[in-house]
Specification:
11 helices, alpha/beta, 9-stranded mixed sheet
C-alpha cells in the first residue's frame, strides 16, 4: 500500500513540474491569469512590470494569448488582458475571455473584440498631457474612447483643453478598462493600487525596506564606517555592506586587503552575521569574489547582473518590487540618493518615498554611501518611520546561492552559510602574484639568492671535506 502511495506521489510531482511554464500555478492554487498580446509572443518590459505589480497582491500566471484555450481560465478567479499589439484575438481565446465571470481588466488595444466592450465607440487621436493628478514627462498619443453613460469613471486623462476617461469600470459586467500602463514617473506608482481596486484585491500594507552601505573599498575610513554601522545597529537596522574588493583608478589596481584595519573589521562583521554584497565590474566578478572568500568574507548577493549569484541588487527605472525572474531573486534600489551637496541632503530621497508609498507593498531600497558618515542615519530612519508602514528586510534570513568553478556559498533562511572552496596551491600563488607582483618578484629574488648561497656553501663544504680526506689519505700513504 505504501509503495502504491509513493508511486502516486511521484507521478503527481512529475506531472506538476513537467507542466509548461505558462500554466504553472502556486501551491495555493490559481488566482490571477495575466494574458498578454505582444508582436513577438514574448514577455516584454510592460508585461514584466505588470507581473511584478500584480504579484504584490497574489499569485500570477503569465500566459500568451495564443495559449489560451476554451477552458484555460476555468480555474482562475481574476484575469488581466494586456494588449500591447493590434491583432485579431484567436477565436478560442476570445470565447474563454467572454465567458469568464470573475473580475477582469483589459489594457490597451483590441478591446472592441470583447463582448463587454462591443458597444463602446472610438474617436479621434489626441495628445495626453496629464493622467489623474500627474503631468506626463512627455505627451502621449492616445485614441480617445467614448464609453456608454453607465460606465464608472475611475481616472481621467487630459490634453491641453479637454478631459477624457482613461480608467473605467463597467457597471453591467465584470470588466474594467485601462487605456495603458504609462511608464512615466510618478504615474507608474499609481497603477498597482488602481489594478488592486479593479480586481477587488486587498492591498498589502507593509513595505519591505533595506539600507545598503555602499562605496566600501580600500580607501574607506574604517573609523567612519564603524560609526555608521553602530548607528544603524542602534535603530535595529539589518547591516548590509556593499564591498568593492578591487577597483581600477588612473591605471592602477587597488585591493581591499591593502587596508588591513578595514579588512580585520569586515572579517569581524562576517562573524557577527552581517550581509555582504559584491560590487565589481563584469570582467572582475570572479576575481573579486575569490579575493573576499580567501579572506573569510562571504558575499551572498551581487550589485548588478551575474549568473554566479541567484540574488542581485539592481537599480532599474520602473521596477519597484522584490521579484523573481528566471532563477534569480531581484531586490531593487528604489529611492533617490542622498545629495550631500544640497542644502537639504535628504530632499530627493523624501520625494522618492512620497511617490513610491503610493504603490502598495513596494520595496524601499536605499543606498547609503559609507563616506557620508553617521550623521544622516537618525534623520533617515525617522523619515521612514514617519512616512511609511514598513518592516526591515533581512537578507540574512533569505535563501541565497553563489556558484563559480572554485567557490560555492549556500545560505539558508536561518542565516547559516555553507562554504566550499576549490583552490589549488598554484591558484593561490597566482592570485598572490596578481595582487602584489613587486613583492612576489622580491621574494623570488630572495629565494634564488638563498638557493645560490646554499649551493655555494654546500659545494664549498664538499670541496673542503674532499680535500681533507685526500690530505688524510696522502699522509697515511706516506706514513
Amino acid at each position: 500500500m505504501r509503495f502504491k502511495f509513493g508511486i502516486l506521489v511521484f507521478i503527481s510531482l512529475f506531472y506538476l513540474f513537467s507542466m509548461p511554464q505558462h500554466y504553472q500555478a502556486s501551491a495555493d492554487g490559481k488566482d490571477l491569469a495575466l494574458i498578454y498580446v505582444t508582436s513577438n509572443r514574448q514577455v516584454d518590459e510592460e508585461v514584466q512590470i505588470l507581473r511584478e505589480m500584480l504579484e504584490a497582491y497574489t499569485t500570477v500566471d503569465v500566459i500568451p494569448i495564443e495559449n489560451v484555450q476554451e477552458n484555460t481560465l476555468a480555474d482562475y478567479k481574476r484575469v488581466v488582458l494586456f494588449n500591447g499589439y493590434k491583432m485579431q484575438i484567436p477565436a478560442t481565446a476570445l470565447q474563454a475571455l467572454n465567458k469568464f465571470q470573475g473580475p477582469a481588466v483589459a489594457i490597451g488595444e483590441n478591446i472592441e473584440q470583447l463582448a463587454p466592450f462591443a458597444h463602446w465607440h472610438w474617436r479621434k487621436t489626441v495628445e495626453l498631457r496629464k493622467i489623474g493628478e500627474h503631468v506626463l514627462e512627455r505627451p502621449l498619443e492616445w485614441h480617445v474612447i467614448h464609453p456608454p453613460d453607465d460606465v464608472e469613471m475611475k481616472v481621467m486623462a487630459s490634453s491641453f483643453n479637454a478631459e477624457f476617461p482613461f480608467v473605467m469600470k463597467e457597471r453591467t459586467s465584470n470588466w474594467s478598462y485601462i487605456g495603458g500602463v504609462i511608464q512615466s514617473s510618478p504615474v507608474l506608482y499609481d497603477w498597482p493600487a488602481i489594478l488592486g481596486d479593479l480586481l477587488i484585491l486587498p492591498p498589502p500594507t507593509i513595505h519591505p525596506a533595506f539600507i545598503v552601505l555602499t562605496d566600501i573599498n580600500m580607501e574607506t575610513d574604517v573609523g567612519e564606517l564603524k560609526k555608521v554601522v553602530q548607528q544603524l545597529q542602534h535603530y535595529n537596522v539589518p547591516i548590509n555592506l556593499q564591498i568593492t574588493p578591487l577597483y581600477e583608478e588612473d591605471g592602477g589596481l587597488y585591493y581591499l586587503q591593502n587596508n588591513k584595519a578595514l579588512l580585520k573589521y569586515l572579517q569581524q562583521l562576517q562573524q557577527d552575521g552581517v550581509t555582504f554584497i559584491l560590487s565589481s565590474s563584469q570582467a572582475n566578478i570572479e576575481k573579486s569574489l575569490e579575493i573576499l572568500v580567501l579572506r573569510h568574507i562571504y558575499p551572498t548577493l551581487v550589485q548588478g547582473d551575474s549568473t554566479f549569484f541567484n540574488g542581485v541588487l539592481r537599480q532599474k527605472e520602473n521596477h519597484f518590487y522584490i521579484t523573481k525572474n528566471d532563477s534569480q531573486n531581484i531586490y531593487p534600489y528604489t529611492i533617490a540618493a542622498i545629495n550631500e551637496m544640497d542644502v537639504q541632503p535628504l530632499y530627493a530621497l523624501q520625494q522618492s518615498i512620497r511617490h513610491i508609498k503610493s504603490a502598495p507593498g513596494s520595496a524601499i531600497g536605499i543606498q547609503y554611501p559609507s563616506y557620508l558618515g553617521a550623521h544622516h542615519v537618525q534623520e533617515l530612519v525617522e523619515l521612514l518611520t514617519k512616512q511609511l508602514q514598513f518592516e526591515w528586510f533581512d537578507f540574512r534570513k533569505t535563501e541565497q546561492f553563489v556558484k563559480t568553478s572554485k567557490v560555492t556559498i549556500m545560505q539558508s533562511t536561518n542565516g547559516e552559510q555553507k562554504v566550499q572552496l576549490a583552490f589549488t596551491n598554484i591558484d593561490r600563488l597566482k592570485m598572490r602574484f596578481d595582487e602584489r607582483p613587486f613583492e612576489m618578484v622580491l621574494w623570488l629574488l630572495v629565494i634564488i639568492v638563498s638557493l645560490f648561497v646554499t649551493v655555494f656553501f654546500m659545494n664549498t663544504l664538499r670541496l673542503r671535506v674532499t680535500l681533507r680526506k685526500r690530505l688524510f689519505e696522502e699522509r697515511k700513504h706516506n706514513g
